[in-house]
# Entry
Amino acid sequence: MAALTRAAPTKQELKSHEMGMHTEQLTGRTQQVFFDIDLNEPHHGFGLPDTFDVDFNKRGEIDASNMDAKQVNLRIRDMMKEGYGTIVLKNPGAKHSMAVGILNRLNLIIEGSLGYFGLGLLDGPNVRISGRVGWSCGENLMSGTILIEKNAGSQFGAALRGGDLVCKGDVGSRTGIDMKGGNIIVGGNTGAFTGFMMQRGRMVLCGNAGKNLGDSMYDGVIFIAGEPQSLGVDAVWGEMTDLDRGWLAEKLKKYDVMPKGGIDSFRKIVAGKQLWNYDNLEPTEKKMVL
Amino acid sequence: MRLKLAEADDLKTDHKIRDKIRERQGLVDNRLSELGVETVEVEQPRPYAFRYRLRYSGDTKQLATDIEQIEGAEVLSFGHALELIKDLGDATQVSQNYGLGDFRGTHAIGHTRMATESDVDIRSAHPYWAYPYNDISVVHNGQITNYWIMRREMERLGHRFMSNCDSELLAVYTANNLEQGATLEDSLKASIKEIDGVFTYLVATDKELGLAKDTMAAKPMVLYESDDIVALASEEVAIRAIVPREIDTSDPYDEEVRVWQR
# Structure
């Protein structure tokens, strides 16, 4: 039978666990291919991402009135290539798939609203949007920050992996579905199935949530200041700690979305872990343990 | 009354269709005069599509049933306020063909269909008229999973289905509820419990515009409300076509029902 015991966690690991993070080493054969690009080792199509040296003081503008999404995305890329570190996107007109695939440090200021799939697949930029975003905003964000002043649609921050995704208004349903890291902060209310199948990361909800909050969550933490209509399967109330309160105070002050009741109004939701098992037992062995 | 006497594709596949349409129109005119209906004006925006202005105080259900007994005839809409237009082609083309730019009214609903589960033809296109009720029509985005169960239930109650499109069920279901004396809001609320699947749909009557979303909120809807206008669309960019400026919009939540009155 496979070993069920692990070495006692260190103090640092305990602190990480308390914050909802993981430290365990996964074992098994890796699928990752390592190569040294300086030695011209064959890298089977892997390449360094396109990154550009940009100067945040070099500021440029794009007027998207008569441009489609592809033209806007290519223009952002060309401007980064030219060294622009601050880009103001004007008149986006709620068009879909705008400002996606930016893998660079960049200050992006969007004056207006975006449609579906806005700001998807980002790694690094800091984005501020004065308007609203449609469905699936910030999908697969790896790092950076996205700050939305108005409302957001459903699937907000789906499969988020890192960075901060902040909406000061209300968001739709299935917020943070399948999120694997990072932080989602919502200043208003959120819809049904928020945090559905969440795996890691933190979600902060300053308003109320719809039914089935945290349904089937594997792990991660949800902080809520308002009331959820109901908790989802395997989502349970957890204990707030001083670390949580400190982290919340810092984040909410930074993005200016503190709820009326302050930090003390927050409660914590975590996975009950009844649905998911982290051991590597064979099904027959599992029956014996259960 | 709006009606069609053939499918758009019949023009390509049947070389005698124009003669047949003329013949069918003659039968419609005979049927109307037999029932004592006064025909004020007839327009023919497309070879197969007709608009009749009628004067009639009798039973419109009987009238619609009688006309639909004519081969190829389908009544698209009846009413003092409702004009229901559907055809093949993109929105701009259909709008030009039927002169939609000249329409005047308080509210309108429209739909561009991506056919997933039934044919690409006029009978499977939205909006659906809530047969046989004057001035009620429905557009829907989604999939109804208990379609056949509900359809059989409606058929047992005597309702007619013209297509195999699941969206038609919502029109028939709404018509049935209103026949039983329910308000539009009651009907929309009941549909969330009784209709399975994922859906967002709109109902327009002569005085009201209603919205209902399913329990999963799986189909998009963006809402913009101001003192002058209420606009709803699956995507905000569609609203921007009529409100070309920065606006505050929101997404209605799961199980949300809204009704606006004119």
Observations:
- Residues 5 and 225 of chain A are 37 Å apart (CA to CA).
